[in-house]
Design goal:
Layout: E1 4-9, E2 12-17, H1 28-43, E3 49-54, H2 68-71, H3 75-94, E4 99-103, E5 106-108, H4 110-117, E6 120-124, E7 128-130, H5 133-136, H6 144-152, H7 154-163, E8 167-168, H8 169-174, E9 180-182, H9 187-199, H10 203-237, H11 239-253
Parallel strand pairs: 2-3, 3-4, 4-6, 5-7, 6-9
Antiparallel strand pairs: 1-2, 7-8
Helix pairs in contact: 1-3, 3-4, 3-10, 6-7, 6-10
Length: 254
Amino acid sequence: MSYATYERHRSVGIVTLNRPERLNAISGALLADFEAALVEGFADEEVSAVVLTGAGRAFCAGDDLKEFDLQTRDLSSVQSHVRAIQQITRILMGSERPVIGAVHGYAVGGGFEWLLNCDLVVAADDLVAFLPEMDWGQFVTGGLTHLLPLAVGYQRAMELILLGERQEASRLREWGLVNRVVPRERMLAEAIEIAEKVGRKSHFSIGRLKRLINQDLSVALWRALELEESITIQAFQRPEAAERVMRFAGQKEE
C-alpha cells in the first residue's frame, strides 16, 4: 500500500496523502511515498498543474505521535525524518508547476505547513488548522518562519505559532492563507477546476512567474529551512519533547 498516490485527471495531476486510518499523520513511509508521488507528478509532461489533497477525514494531522520513539531513536533517525519533511517543501516550492491545495478536516503541524507551501488553496468549510509544536516541545518546519510573517505580518505569525490556537477556514480566508472556502463535497472539484483554468494559460509564463516570485524568496527561504532543520533536530532530541509528546498522546487517549 502506498501512503501517497499520484493520478492524472485530464491535464491535472492529483497527489493524495493516503493514510486515512491515521488521518494522514506523518510517518517515515508517508514522507517517502509523498516525495515519490510529487516527483512523478511534476515529471508528467501531460500535466499543467498539481492538486494536493488528503484521503479520508483529514488533510494531514501532523506528526504521528505513535512513531515518536522510532523517529527519535538516534541522531541519524531524527536527521532523516526532519530532512524528509523539509524536502517536501523544497519540491513543492521549487517546482515551476503550480500546486493547488484541496484541504479539509485537520491540517495540523506539518499539514498546516504544507498548506502554506501551496500556490493556491481551496479549503473545505470543515477545515481546522493549527500549529502544536510549541506545546509539544518541537519546532515548526516547512519554511514557516520565513513564509508566515510575509503572508500575515509578524505579530499574527507569532500568534499562530506561539499560541497554536485552532483556526477555522473562514479565519484563514480572512487572513489570506486560503483562497476559497467551499462545502466539503465541492472542494476537490473546485481545486481541479482552478487547476484546469491554470492549464489553459501559458505554461512558459506561469513557470517563469513562479520561478521569479520564489527567486526573491529562495535565498531567505532556503536559509530558513536549514535553520529550522537544525533547531528541529535539537528539539526532537530534548527529553522535554518526549515528555510533552507522551503527555499529549495520553490526553488524546483519555
